[in-house]
Specification:
Length: 336
């Protein structure tokens, strides 16, 4: 599975290459609650076909009626970008299915330049992080390599949007839990790799869309070259494998590093990494273990939900209350 942004931009490029008029739409700003965050994209073809999403559906329907030939509309025209705002009053919010008080502003680009779209898609497919900047008055677009992901910026005149490789996840250990975590990660737009050098574990393991590698975990981490869009989760229950991956991951730019295990095993791991591998209490602050948030999970599927919830919270910049950690909740409910 690949990034939604890449799918949107590839569709825009392919439709433009086929001579189809298209409208590229980006959520530029939101106020209050909004069904889609700033930066969400959708491309709309003249016959009403679309890829991507900027709302729960009602705004897409309105754009189809306003700008395409579907249902007898005027068709997608040309010209400089336009700004379109939805949800200014309660009637609009209700009509377009926006949450109470929700407002969003869209940047509409009519028939974006084919050569620029093609160059952008090729760079994104090659794993390059790109900052795409649109001048709303002139429609001029610049696309330059970026050093790090940034939140979308829009000042009313210029929109700067960092686009890049989708989020990645490396799972250590090809077990039942990894199957559920991998499946959920795919649904959440992660590119997933599972590493397990144990042939007997990998032999019967299969989740469509997941890359499987049999190299040693530390080599797999190095080969991935983790960046700020990478999550690494040790799930093998084998210290020889999990520790190798964690020792590399802790000194990488990965935004999330987690490891499965009981509270006792987690404490033993921390002590082992400090005594024998020169880690410190400070360096181990980045390690989330036992992995996941506490939801009373017992089965692999339930544990996977708790793991994925924690990963998404960290990805989205949400600070979780301390009592949601597995260790803290179990200490409170069960005791040390």
């Amino acid at each position: 599975m690949e990034s939604v942004d890449v799918r949107v931009l590839r569709a825009a490029r392919d439709w433009r290459a086929a001579g189809e008029p298209v409208l590229l739409t980006t959520v530029a700003r939101t106020w209050g609650s909004s069904p889609r965050p700033a930066g969400s994209m959708m491309v709309l073809r003249n016959d009403g076909r679309c890829v991507g999403s900027v709302s729960g559906g009602c705004i897409e329907d309105d754009l189809i009626l306003r700008f395409t030939s579907a249902h007898g509309g005027p068709g997608i025209g040309s010209g400089t970008p336009q700004l379109l705002r939805y949800g200014i009053d309660a009637d609009d919010a209700h009509r377009f299915g926006l949450p109470c008080g929700g407002t969003l502003e869209l940047l509409l680009e009519f028939n974006p330049d084919l050569a620029l779209l093609d160059a952008l898609v090729r760079q994104l497919e090659a794993g390059v992080l790109i900052q795409r900047t649109v001048n709303c008055a002139s429609g001029a677009v610049t696309q330059t390599p970026a050093q790090a992901p940034e939140a979308l910026r829009f000042d009313g005149d210029t929109l700067s949007h960092t686009l890049g490789p989708q989020y990645r996840m490396l799972l250590i250990g090809a077990g039942a839990l990894a199957e559920y975590v991998a499946t959920m990660a795919l649904f959440n737009d992660f590119a997933v790799t599972v590493c397990d050098p144990r042939a007997e574990h990998v032999g019967g393991w299969s989740v469509p869309g997941v890359t499987i590698t049999g190299e040693m975990p530390d080599d797999a981490v190095r080969a991935m070259r983790p960046d700020t869009r990478t999550a690494i989760v040790a799930l093998s229950h084998d210290p020889k494998l999990d520790d190798l991956a964690l020792l590399e991951a802790l000194h990488s730019a990965a935004f999330y590093i987690g490891a499965i295990g009981s509270r006792r095993n987690t404490d033993a791991r921390r002590q082992r990494l400090i005594e024998h591998f020169d880690e410190t209490q400070a360096s181990l602050q980045r390690l989330r273990a036992p992995v996941g948030i506490y939801i009373g999970s017992r089965t692999p599927a339930e544990i996977a939900v708790s793991v994925m919830a924690e990963i998404l919270a960290v990805k989205n910049g949400v600070t979780l209350p301390a009592m949601l950690s597995v260790a803290a909740a179990k200490t409170e409910l069960i005791g040390p």
